[in-house]
Every structure is written in structure tokens, then in C-alpha cells.
Amino acid sequence: MAIAVISSLYRCEQHLPTFSAALFGLARRVSEAGLSVHFVPVVNDATRGEREGIERLAGEINARYYGRMTPLFVPRETLYASWNRGLAAAQAPFFTFWNADDIRSAEAFIEGYKALHDGANLVDFDYTRVAQIRRFGLLPRQQRIPVACMFDGEGVTRRAGIGPFFMASKALYTHVGPFDPNFEVAGDTEWASRALPAVRFQRGRRNGGDFVVHGDNLSNTGGEREDIEVNIIFMRRRAWGQLRPANPTAMREAWERWGNPRQIRLPAAEADFLWGAQAERRWKRYQRERSQAPFLRRLRLSLAARGLIHSVEWSMAQRGRGQR
Fold first, then answer.
1. Whether the Cβ atoms of residue 4 and residue 90 lie closer than 8 Å to each other
2. pLDDT above 70 for 315
3. Among 39, 137, 291, 313, which is most exposed with the fewest C-beta within 10 angstroms?
């Protein structure tokens, strides 16, 4: 097998028809290109319908296309535990991941494989963020927002993590080590931050695909857990300027319970920022500012940039300038 495609699935039955159609399309195109793909869906706590649907999908893929699908049915575990499990089961020299609710570009997939084959060990792409939005009580419409490639091979910031369609070599994974299964949302970015010293990066020319936002996504939602995990990534790197307000109680518990395996000493000023006396007030204001309507948010940030009002969000953006 040339490349493994690993999908961690949980309660995915509603996405199976779309996922199956997208997967058939990619399998057909890569088969035509002579590329052998090992699809490894890791199905967490499968319902009867999910098991039947995945087994039927595997049967069709194995019968019709160049490559194979070998489903793994497991008790529920974190996303990154499933990624590690899938990688352990796959023998291909290269790998990527595919969420059941996203649509991958077959042409970008082929481009990424060729780049890895030619010597890169990590490839990332631009992609499209797709969401349903509703305004003024009207019927929802699809919003498509182009997102520039997040990874650059030089550093990781809150705006430069890694995209949903990245591809990498198994040798890089072996060198860097597994994804941290304690993470639930940002484990891919945490892994990429560890990989930086060993990365031979290539940015894909094509758009990697559609990242579909539907309300149940784990990442890129700005949720409380994501805020905490992203802070932990930068705390582990001692990049204090990248820290942002988060739920103080949950932030401290996560850092002390699982987030600090190397026993990093947190400076007193950063501890005070994250869970000191003013931390909860700062966090709540930060949450209110980020949840404002886009027009009001832009207006507030513009006024804050001119020094006319105080904004926690603006202050935080200035805090991290120049750190990678």
C-alpha cells in the first residue's frame, strides 16, 4: 500500500451516505492514477447501523478499487487515540486523515502523495470552510470561505497550526512519536509543533477540500476545550505570549492533571494570568467579545487599535506578536 487514510468515526451514521459517495469518488480517481490506498476507519462504539454501513462500504471498496479497506471496531476512545491505533494497523509509508463530515479533493490527494514520494515528509494545503448560515430569519444558505494553508514549517502560532487535510510520512510519525491521546480537539496541532525540527515541508498548490462546519465539529469552533488545549500547546513550548484567557478552573485542572508531563515551571505572572484573581472576569469578557456579531467585533477592534476603547481581544492579539 502506498498511503493510508485513517478515519476516526463516532456516531457517524448521518454522514455515511455523503462520506461513502466522497470516498468512492476519491478511490476511483486514485485507482485510475495507479495509487494503492489503505483505508482504515476506526469506528468507536459502533451502532448496529454504523457497523453494517461501514462493513458494506468496505466490501464495495475492496471489490471495486485498487487498494483495500480494513475497518477497526473499538470501544469509545479519543480521536487521537484512534489515529494512533489506525497508524499502528497501517503499513503504508505515508498517511493522512479523513473526517467523515469533510470532502477531500482527489487531485490534491494525488499531489500530496507525489510530494511525499519525492522527499517531503509533511504536506499541507489551502482548504475551504463550509458552513450553513442563517440571517434575518431567512432560509439557511451555504457560506464558503477560503482558508490559506495554516502550516508553514517554520513555527506554530494560534493562527498557524495545521490544516485538516495534511499528509505526512510514517517515518516522521515514528521519529516524532504518537499523537497525545489526552487531547480531544487540538492534538494534531500539538503533534505538528513537536514535529517542526524534523519537518521537510511542502505546501500543496491545490485546495485540499471542504472542511464542513455543522455544529458538532471538535476543532475550529472556539469552544472551551479547544481554548484550554491550545493554551497547553504553547505552555509546553514556553511561548507565554500565545496564551489566551480560558476557563480558569478547567484550565488549571487540565494543566496539573495531564497537560504538564515534563513538569514545566509556570512563571508566576502566567499562572496569575490564567487562574489568578482577575482571570475569570477577563475570560468572561473575552468570551463576550469573541461572540459579538462580526460587524460589531470589527468595529470594536478598530476602535481598540486606535486607543479609543479597551478590548481584551485586541490586547491579547498584541500580546503574542512576534512569537512562534
1. yes
2. yes
3. 137
